[in-house]
Specification:
Order of helices and strands: EEEEEEEEEEEEEEEEEEEEEEEEEEEE
Oligomer: single chain
Number of domains: 3
CATH superfamily of the largest domain: Galactose-binding domain-like
Number of strands: 28
Shape: rod-shaped
Strand content: over 45%
CATH architecture of the largest domain: Sandwich
Structural class: mainly beta
Distance between the termini: 21 Å
Bound molecules: calcium ion
Mean pLDDT: 86
Largest sheet: 7 strands, antiparallel
CATH class of the largest domain: Mainly Beta
Low-confidence stretches: 1-15
Length: 369
């Protein structure tokens, strides 16, 4: 006995800006802070540029680290970008089931830089999504003091599922090829990648409440779900918090019963929160709850003589009759739990078999084990 149910899916996603990858260059080229849904490369170089020799390879940065900046020589003397570059990249997690792959939307790339007196005086930053063409993000000049340059990724870099690569081409050494440039705090930021993949999220109006069910295909670094309800898609009320599996490569199922559903349309969404505080909303689903409709639901079915739960809506439970297929009335006891929720107990001697449960014009077949 289910109330008329409607489930709609609406696209409504919100995300927060977070750090995708960071290279602090403090004596290492390895990434030091990476989103758990992404993996970042080491810094690499190509096109003839060389690491500064010996202890000059890592030199002082602007953050107080004696070996905190990465120094590259031999940028060439051309007045336009050549083939020499520094490169960083990151990859999203991928899974056998492509529905589970992480999607990402990079927003900015920035880094600190400082050049020698000999240059290089300028640089261009280029970015590539997957195997696409490199796109110029912009140019900037470098000075003999540390400065930070920030570049925005193009609007086409949205909901990507492939690697993103960024290259810095410095040029314009003023004296042969001896100019060097220090790099520090290379950083890529972006919108929070969806931390779990929802394979199912549905709401069913049953009796006087709404049952929510959701499943995830995998989870990474997940902390908890906040179940939120709205009647107007504007104001949302937090109903409960449900702990999540955390790190899981297998399917997990979650349920929540909203016993205070509002008459009419109820909208639900999940706010999925990660351990690092980043979060994202699920899609919004809808359940139509009609408290004026007569309904009953008895479960589990089959039941035992002491575990049957009966939920009624707009029915007089005092009119409950349970009878055998031969029409003989069955003795039972009703224990109210809430105004609409009862536990039904049968006599221990009640034979197993099929029975009919009836209130007014509602009927349900019930198997007692
Ligand atoms: Ca710095
Ligand atoms: Ca540093």
């Amino acid at each position: 006995m289910r109330h008329p149910l409607a489930t709609f899916f609406m696209l409504l996603s919100t995300a927060v800006l977070g750090q995708y990858a960071h290279w602090n260059c403090n004596g290492t080229l390895a990434p030091t802070s990476v989103n758990p849904k992404l993996t970042a490369s080491s810094v690499s170089i190509a096109g003839g540029v060389q690491e500064a020799a010996g202890s000059n390879r890592f030199t002082a940065d602007n953050d107080g680290n004696a070996d905190g900046a990465y120094t590259l020589d031999n940028w060439g003397s051309g007045t336009a970008p050549g083939s020499a570059y520094l490169e960083v990249s990151y990859d999203p997690l991928t899974f056998a089931d492509p529905r589970s792959n992480v999607t990402h939307t990079p927003q900015q790339f920035y880094f600190d830089h400082r050049r020698s007196a000999q240059g290089p005086v300028g640089f261009v930053v280029r970015a590539q999504a997957g195997a696409g063409s490199f796109i110029d993000l912009g140019t900037a000049t470098s000075t003999e003091n540390f400065g930070r340059s920030t570049f925005n990724f193009p609007g086409s870099f949205v909901n990507l599922s492939a690697r993103v690569t960024v290259r810095i081409y410095a040029y314009g050494a003023v004296s042969g090829s001896q100019g060097n440039m220090r790099f520090d705090d290379l950083t890529i930021t972006g919108l929070a990648p969806m931390p779990v993949e929802f394979t199912l999220f549905k709401a069913s109006a049953v009796g006087e409440s709404v049952e929510l069910l959701w499943q995830t295909a995998w989870e990474r670094n997940s902390d908890y779900f906040e179940v939120q309800r709205s009647s107007d898609l504007k104001e949302y009320l937090n109903l409960t918090t449900v702990p999540s599996a955390g790190d899981s490569q297998t399917q997990n199922s979650y349920t929540f019963t909203d016993a205070s559903a509002l008459p009419g349309v109820n909208y639900y969404r999940l706010r999925q929160v990660d351990r690092d505080g980043t979060w994202a909303f699920s899609k919004v689903i809808m359940a139509v709850f009609r408290p004026d409709a007569a309904a009953m639901v008895a479960y589990p079915n089959p039941c035992s003589r002491s575990n049957l739960t009966l939920r009624v809506n707009n029915l007089d439970v005092n009119k409950l009759v349970i009878y055998s297929l031969l029409g003989a009335e069955v003795w039972f006891e009703l224990q109210p739990q809430t105004p609409n929720n009862f536990v039904v107990r049968f006599a221990p001697s009640q034979p197993a078999g099929l029975y009919i449960l009836a209130i007014e014009n509602q009927r349900q077949r019930l198997w007692i084990d």
